[in-house]
Amino acid sequence: MSRDMTDDNKICFVTCVNNETLYEKCLSFLKQLIVPPNITVEYKAVRDASSMCEGYNTAIKESDARYKVYLHQDVYITYSYFIHRLLKLFEERTIGLAGVIGAQTLPESCVWWESGYRYGRVIDSSSGFLLEQKHRLHLKNKYEEVVAVDGLIMATQYDLPWRADLFKGWHFYDVSQCLEFRRAGFKVVVPMQPCSQVTHVCGVTELAGYFEYRDIFRAEYGADILKFQFNP
């Protein structure tokens, strides 16, 4: 969808769904968010997607919303003013993509959470227990530029195709999209968060296919990692 066809007063929450119970709970939290005046909210559930990238590209084709929030079906946005804060952040048009947690560097493993320079906060159960992750919360700026954010929730104000040609599963689509935005000249950021805005009830990460897509990621973005990551 071309940029001149987008609705600048609409936000769309996009979720790939294969568990209706989880999505109904996710949706119940979305519908409790406070919506600014003159903003229209759309909820798009993509079912039977073959991959995360394919599902998200479907949403780009079907929604004219300028602002899109891509979130997992087991993510619950608990901060009532989430939309307000996101739209305020996106007043800076050089910011293309934002997440709640990410990293300024990618280590040799290409696993963002193994970076020594992580930012943001989220409550999640990736450790097997529901705990809050908090990284470098002393930020003085309203956001920190990062090389990648976690795919649990990714918000954009521009439509760039997700690399479904490369990532045909459920891993590395998020780091890939961050680098696609960097390639396009946009900032990828983690905003300052006075409290955790999101709870991710994900359980321990399923790694089937993970290293296969890590190798694909390295082949495509190896030079970009050196070019785009920060040196704190």
Q: How does this structure look, described?
A:
- With 232 residues, this protein is α/β, with parallel strands linked by helices.
- It has one domain: Spore Coat Polysaccharide Biosynthesis Protein SpsA, Chain A.
- The chain is 26% helix and 28% strand.
- It has a seven-stranded mixed sheet with strand order 2-1-3-11-5-12-9. Strands 4, 6, 7, 8, 10 and 13 form a six-stranded mixed sheet that branches.
- Strand 1 (7-17), helix 1 (20-30) and strand 2 (40-47) form a beta-alpha-beta unit.
- Helix 4 runs parallel beside helix 5 (210-228).
- The longest helix has 19 residues, at 210-228.
- It is globular and about 45 Å long.
- The mean pLDDT is 93.
CATH architecture: Alpha-Beta Complex
Gyration radius, rounded: 16 Å
Shape: globular
**Structural class of the secondary structure composition?**
alpha/beta
| β-strand number | 13
CATH topology tier name? Spore Coat Polysaccharide Biosynthesis Protein SpsA, Chain A
Low-confidence stretches: none
